[in-house]
């Protein structure tokens, strides 16, 4: 499988999304700005933020100051459902807050991908949230819309169109196989957050990972990120460490063979292997 840092995946809209990006969860202040700048210098072209992270403005400013052309950078953010915004009109108003923050550019400001951050709100709430995202997409300032932390049941009551992306926790120890299979069947791109399993020492010291690191001369994080790419996922590792940001992207000079992939597939612990809240099954 020949990949590079510029590899993309085609969404149902026909738009291209970079297969590899930088997550900025809990990145604040100067460390967030530095991380985004370093990632762009290293060749990253996909940055994943969220309203709940309170760093959209930092991301947008860092992109402008990087000197990289805005059309060459793919920007994702997320709307976190709230009890206060119930109608599509109310939600749309909240969505608009993100645009000038994450894209302060003067010409053609837009958000490449906006996700519903969770399935909270019940069937009616999800439907209203989705209608707001659909309206924003029709207006043109959001190019693609998707969801995060949705399970199969959540999709069943969602009005059209079908989401372009479902972003969920994914790594060898938490493979979320039912929802991944559902997404594949419905042409929904699967995006992996926490693809490094938060560098959990017990996981990274697993004999399978240790052996594959020796075999390929790579670090644990590089092995599990390569696994994610070869599974067909979009991966967005988070880091604020400049050297780690670069090493995370150093995964294009080796390939995991069938035996390697099967060994990593065998590490799956289901929901018990999650390292985050992983709220796929928290909402009805």
TrEMBL record:
Cytoplasm in keyword set: no
PROSITE patterns listed in its UniProt record: ALDOKETO_REDUCTASE_1, ALDOKETO_REDUCTASE_3
Positions marked as site (Lowers pKa of active site Tyr): 78
UniProt xrefs under SUPFAM superfamilies: NAD(P)-linked oxidoreductase
Keywords (A to Z) from UniProt: Oxidoreductase
Residues holding substrate: 117
MF annotations from Gene Ontology: oxidoreductase activity
Entry annotated with the keyword Cytoplasm: no
Annotated ranges, domain NADP-dependent oxidoreductase: 30-268
Pfam families xrefs: Aldo_ket_red
Active site: 53
Family note: Belongs to the aldo/keto reductase family.
Protein name: NADP-dependent oxidoreductase domain-containing protein
Organism: Kockovaella imperatae
């Amino acid at each position: 499988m020949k990949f590079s840092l510029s590899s993309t995946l085609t969404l149902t809209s026909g738009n291209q999304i970079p297969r590899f990006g930088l997550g900025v969860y809990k990145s604040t202040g100067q460390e967030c700005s530095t991380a985004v700048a370093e990632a762009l210098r290293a060749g990253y072209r996909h940055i994943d933020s969220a309203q709940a992270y309170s760093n959209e403005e930092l991301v947008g400013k860092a992109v402008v100051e990087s000197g990289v052309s805005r059309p060459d950078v793919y920007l994702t953010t997320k709307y976190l459902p709230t009890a206060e915004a119930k109608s599509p009109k109310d939600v749309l108003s909240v969505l608009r807050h993100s645009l000038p923050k994450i894209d302060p550019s003067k010409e053609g400001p837009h958000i490449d991908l906006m996700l519903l951050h969770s399935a909270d709100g019940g069937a009616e709430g999800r439907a209203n949230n989705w209608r707001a995202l659909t309206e924003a997409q029709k207006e043109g300032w959001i190019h693609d819309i998707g969801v995060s932390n949705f399970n199969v049941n959540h999709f069943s009551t969602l009005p059209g169109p079908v989401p372009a992306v479902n972003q969920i926790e994914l790594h060898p120890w938490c493979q979320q196989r039912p929802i991944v299979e559902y997404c594949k069947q419905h042409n929904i791109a699967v995006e992996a957050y926490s693809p490094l399993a938060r560098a959990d020492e017990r996981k990274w010291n697993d004999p399978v990972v240790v052996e594959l690191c020796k075999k390929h001369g790579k670090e644990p994080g590089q092995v599990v990120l390569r696994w994610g790419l070869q599974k067909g996922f979009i991966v967005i590792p988070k880091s604020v460490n400049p050297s780690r940001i670069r090493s995370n992207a150093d995964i294009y000079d080796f390939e995991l063979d069938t035996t390697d992939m099967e060994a990593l597939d065998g590490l799956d612990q289901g929901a018990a292997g999650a390292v985050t809240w992983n709220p796929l099954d928290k909402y009805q």
